[in-house]
Amino acid sequence: MATFISRSGFIPSTSHLISYYASFSTTSMLLRNVYREVVPQKLEEYVLNKLRFLFFSKVSPSCCSFIIDDSWEFFDHNELIEAAAMYLSNKIGVQNKKVRVGKFRKEQGLTTGLVPGEEIVDEFKGIKVTWLLVREKGNDNYFMLTFEEEHRDVILKDYFNHILDTHENMKQEKKVLKLFTKRGRGPGQKINFNHPSTFETMAMDNDLKKSIIADLDKFLSRKDFYRRVGKTWKRGYLLYGPPGTGKSSLIAAMANHLKYNVYNLELGNVRSDIELRDMLLDTADKSIIVVEDIDCNQEVWNRDVKSSNFSDYNIPKFTLSTLLNCIDGLWSVCGEERIFVFTTNHKEILDPALLRPGRMDMHIHMSYCTTQGFRILASNYLEIKEHPLFEQIDDLIKCVDVTPAALAEELMRSDLPDVALGGVVDLLKQKRIERDTKEVEKAKKMEKESDQK
Ligand SMILES: Nc1ncnc2c1ncn2[C@@H]1O[C@H](COP(=O)(O)OP(=O)(O)OP(=O)(O)O)[C@@H](O)[C@H]1O
């Protein structure tokens, strides 16, 4: 058992101990208040910063430091500052007792930041790098990173590139996507693009889905390749299939996957080659440029009709060749990282120039729903993987043409799987009756025709 004995050998009583403690805590509170009154918080931060700075600079003779600031007289904004701030925001952890938090218009979710005086220890290729955000009176904040001198080259060449690349990826991740609708010259309409479609929610053949994702990822990673072979860094996809098979949904899934903005070009109102060129030039890098239902404007797509022949103001005055030349020619000199998507319900009537190899890199057939596709829809809408009605639905889907859109509409009618799937069975049976009736009528017609012969 512990005993308290004073220097004089006198053992203090409990009441003495309590009164000592009370007077000690009152004195310390008083001193703390006086300190707060006399030393303002900003001064305290300043002194602590200075001490940390001195400690960091003198931490070891084999250490060296880089400063990342924005006071370069003859240069514009130092991009490394923004990149470092975002890079470090991902490294902030429980060891950081004070953290800045913000929400910014162009970013999804919250953003965290380092507070002056706080440090972060990062590791790159086994090298320890210590970061400190420093606030100096009258100057902007700057970053100081300290590491062993022998790694100077790796830090300069590889570490900073790693930070810039990570920053670029993080920016893409946090980006709020935009949908631009362009009808001719001018900025057009711009809204936030919040389409929920992703490759996961797309009801389509799994192998096709994987091959599209692989193609997009390959495109993203081949910047140097395109440069080396002297080709424009762009890719074209032609999506074709009946209405309601998910062409628009697939474009949204591609945009969400790539984190690209979407430009929806409405070509119906474009009056001249120049207007078309301006419209295309007005689109930004890292975007998907969409022309939907290209089969709907036959005049536009017929390459035999020369634009100058049109006198009627209501008829579009450019041809498919103009569009294709714009895409091929324009971006070979001034654009990069663009995806072009054309959609059609009738591939068979498209101008062969568009279908020529090299024009649209990938032709994607969006087909009627398959049994595999239906499982994805059931999982999306009802959150179920199995159900006794699935077998019957599979058999019916195999023998009728039904779009994912029609099935999705049926699945939305109820949250109860029995009810929603019952509706799907009724829809498919109805489609089977329609199909049988059509086949009977067709057979009768053929019989009649052969009788007449
Ligand atoms: N393959 C699919 N996977 C998941 N949902 C789909 C799919 N196809 C259609 N849908 C659903 O049906 C709706 C309509 O589909 P969407 O507009 O993408 O079809 P579309 O082929 O572009 O039609 P259109 O040719 O008429 O423009 C979508 O919002 C989505 O809910």
From TrEMBL:
Pfam family, one: AAA_lid_At3g28540
InterPro entries on file: AAA+_ATPase, AAA_N_dom, At3g28540-like_C, ATPase_AAA_core, Mitochondrial_chaperone_BCS1, P-loop_NTPase
Gene3D superfamilies, per database record: 6.10.280.40, P-loop containing nucleotide triphosphate hydrolases
Boundaries of every AAA+ ATPase domain copy: 233-370
Catalysed reactions listed for this entry: ATP + H2O = ADP + phosphate + H(+)
Organism whose genome encodes this protein: Erythroxylum novogranatense
UniProt cross-references to SUPFAM superfamilies, sorted A to Z: P-loop containing nucleoside triphosphate hydrolases (SSF52540)
Cofactor or coenzyme needed: Mg(2+)
UniProt-listed GO biological process terms: response to stress
UniProt entry tagged with the keyword Hydrolase: yes
A single GO molecular function term of this UniProt record: ATP hydrolysis activity
Superkingdom of origin: Eukaryota
Family from the record: Belongs to the AAA ATPase family. BCS1 subfamily.
Keyword tags: Hydrolase, Magnesium
Protein name: AAA+ ATPase domain-containing protein
